[in-house]
Structures are given as C-alpha cells and as structure tokens.
Specification:
Strand 2 and strand 3 form a beta hairpin. The protein has a 3-stranded antiparallel β-sheet with strand order 1-3-2. The protein is elongated and about 55 Å long. It is built from 6 helices and 3 strands, in the order H-E-H-H-E-E-H-H-H. It is mostly helical and 126 residues long. 60% of the residues lie in helices and 8% in strands. It has a domain of 68 residues: Arc Repressor Mutant, subunit A, CATH 1.10.10.
C-alpha cells in the first residue's frame, strides 16, 4: 500500500477497508485479517493497524469476537456510506465549491461533463 503524507496512515488503512466494503469485496459477517496479518501486508507497525481497527469499531463498521478475530458488521455498508458521505460533504465539497466559484464553473457545466457532453466553453482555456 502506498501512503500519502498529509493524511494519517491509520486513516488511509481505514479508507482502504471502507473502499473494500463499498465495492462489496468485504460484506457483513466476513472475517478480516488480524492486526498482525494486515500490518505485514501493508508494511506498517501493528500498533498502527490496531488504531485503524479501533477507529472502525468506534464507527461500528467492524467488530471483534474475542479470541476469534475481527469481522465486518452486518450493516457496515450503510455505516460506511454514511461516514464517507459526511467526510465528502465536510472535507471535499467546500474546496470544490470554492474552486467552482473562482473558476466560474457552474453546476450546469458539471452536469454536462458528467453526462459526457463535450463542453468546449469549459475546456477552451486549456
């Protein structure tokens, strides 16, 4: 796993696990790797993975069966979507809105781009 500097490593690992849940690679009831297995896979200290697992448990996305291991919660998909939506709205949208305003990009421009329409007015300055 390749990490980016400004974001805490434990949060990047949490994002990785959340992406697996959102992509249905991990489903409710699935056992996930142990702290040591995950640490070896992503090449970090086990304490970092333990911190990730603690965070995901606090979010009720995973749970621990003592002596058995960590498992994906049955409602992990819904909780992960809610967590990611909140993060998107709080962290990314303000910056997107600011740039849209500064660059004079309208919501209609975004819709046209999303719909795959070639929008020369938006791209002509490149």
């Amino acid at each position: 796993m390749k990490f980016i500097k400004p974001k805490a490593i434990y949060m990047q690992i949490a994002d990785y696990l959340c992406e697996q849940i959102l992509a249905a690679e991990l489903k409710g009831g699935d056992r996930i790797q142990s702290v040591r297995e995950m640490a070896a896979q992503v090449e970090v200290n086990p304490n970092t993975v333990a911190r990730t697992f603690t965070y995901l448990q606090e979010q009720e996305i995973i749970f621990n069966k003592r002596g058995v291991g960590y498992f994906v919660a049955d409602d992990a998909l819904q909780k992960t979507k809610a967590l990611k939506k909140t993060a998107f709205i709080k962290q990314f949208l303000p910056e997107v809105f600011k740039l849209m305003e500064l660059l004079e990009i309208s919501f209609e421009d975004l819709k046209k781009l999303k719909d795959g329409e070639l929008y020369n007015g938006l791209m002509k300055d490149n």
